[in-house]
Amino acid sequence: MPKHTVTLIPGDGIGPEITAVMCRVVEAVGVDIAWELAWAGTEMLEQTGSPLPTETIESIRRTKVAIKGPITTPVGSGFRSVNVELRKQLDLFVNLRPVLSLPGTGARYDNVDIVIVRENTEDLYAGVEFEQGTSAALGLIDYCERAGAGHIRADSGLSIKPISISGSKRIVEWGFEYALANKRSKLTAIHKANIQKFSDGLFLKVAREVAQDFEGRIEFEDRIVDAACMGLVMRPHEFDVMVLPNLYGDIVSDLCAGMVGGLGLAPGANIGTEYAVFEPVHGSAPKYAGKDKANPTAELLTAVLMLRHLGEKDAADRIMTAITSVLAEGRFVTYDIKRSLTGSTAGSVGTVAFAEALINRL
Ligand code: NAD
Questions:
Q1: Looking at the predicted structure, is the pLDDT value of residue 74 above 80?
Q2: Element (H or E) spanning 175, and its range?
Q3: CATH architecture of the domain covering 1-98+265-362
């Protein structure tokens, strides 16, 4: 009987290549995992009529832990994001995204060590939307006018931004508990409460209330999202743990990935009270699909998070050390890292060659 069973969702675009490499690396450190293969994405939509088959959700409910590659969400089509759906159905309310500058990556800043805690189920990202011209959209526009909420042009499409007390409380509490457990010193709540008074304003009010319970143990501050972005670029070392509503979390995590060498290096985890689904920050990068070009490091750092979650700390540390050592040495790096380091992709290696260098090091 294997020690762990984990649902593996390869995804699409570069997903199958980077998840295959991830499985090889995890095997190389000798962790006994039975992978339960499950599918989601555009191909599934064509084959089964659903981009997220019930068998995939059932597998995660059974194994409790999944790791996935990215999944394409076509812009402006009727296809709802599989990722958003997964997070909703499994109530994965935390999106944890560590941002760490590693040597040899051409990161714009040294010694950045920020942890992004993004709310994962609410906000404009929740997909509560009304298409322009539909009777629902027109009815809502009419209701807003009658309720004194303001005039909305009749030819508008609408997206609703729900932010609740309970949703905000649980994510801010989780952020503080994470900060305590991981010996962090400060938590910054990010918002636009000066303008979005009833949504971000509520998030901030709750964050301030929760902060009182941790007074004297974790320092608390809040920043307006636009000023926080400037602060991140100018003085990233002022940030430690950041807690953000969903959409700001999405945007700020790509900004942070850019500070430390790009999306090819940014891991992530979706966590709830019962289930955890690990996935890198980046998307399916369709233009690199099947070309043996993608950097698998983000997926591998994501596996490091998963192994820690499974209690396999030594294996996680060994993979982390091997990644750090291969990157620092600089002989086997993918195109994105080479470009950050030299301005050109000449001399870079492919996905598989990088993985092989890593496995040799292990
Ligand atoms: P993307 O992250 O796929 O790619 C943006 C650019 O970043 C790429 O062109 C590439 O230059 C670089 N990049 C990303 N990952 C890389 C890697 N591992 N190695 C090297 N370079 C890498 O973002 P996008 O182009 O906006 O989105 C493509 C698709 O992915 C969209 O359909 C989007 O909805 C989806 N997406 C999925 C997820 C997810 O599954 N969790 C997350 C984000 C985007």
A1: no
A2: helix 165-181
A3: 3-Layer(aba) Sandwich (3.40)
Residue 80: count of CB within 10 angstroms of its CB: 14
- Residue among 236, 240, 244 at smallest CA distance from 204: 244
Whether 226 is catalytic is: yes
Contact yes or no for 41/82 (Cβ under 8 A): yes
Ordered by start, the domain boundaries in the chain are 1-98+265-362, 113-118+163-259, 123-162
Q: For the chain, how many residues are written?
A: 362
72 in Cβ contact with 286 (< 8 Å): yes
Distance from C-alpha of 335 to C-alpha of 337, rounded to nearest angstrom: 6
Residue range 232-270, pLDDT digits in tens = 999 999 999 999 999 999 999 999 999 999 999 999 999
CATH topology of domain 113-118+163-259: Rossmann fold (3.40.50)
Collect contacts of 234-239 with beta carbons under 8 A, ≥24 apart: 236/109, 236/112, 236/114, 237/109, 237/111, 237/112, 239/114, 239/186, 239/188
Tokens at 286, concatenated: 């369709």
Report the C-alpha gap between 3 and 234 in whole angstroms. 46
Task: Yes or no: say if 215 and 181 are a contact pair by the CB < 8 Å rule.
Answer: no
Ligand 1 atom with minimal separation from the 282 CA: 2
Torsion 169-91-309-15 (CA) sign: negative
CA atoms within 13 A on the CB side of 61: 9
The CA distance from 213 to 176, in Å, is 9
- H or E stretch including 190? strand 186-191
Q: Find the catalytic residue in 192, 200, 240, 338.
A: 192
Place of tokens 């994965």: 92
**356 exposure class (CB count in 10 Å sphere: 0-12, 13-18, 19+):** middle
- pLDDT tens-place string over residues 265-276: 999 999 999 999
What distance, in Å, lies between the first and last C-alpha atoms of the chain? 25
The residue annotated as part of the active site, out of 68, 125, 248, 335, is 125
CA of 120 to the centre of ligand 1 (A): 18
**Among 288, 293, 266, which residue's Cα sits nearest to residue 352?**
293
Q: Is-contact 6 306, C-beta < 8 A? A: yes
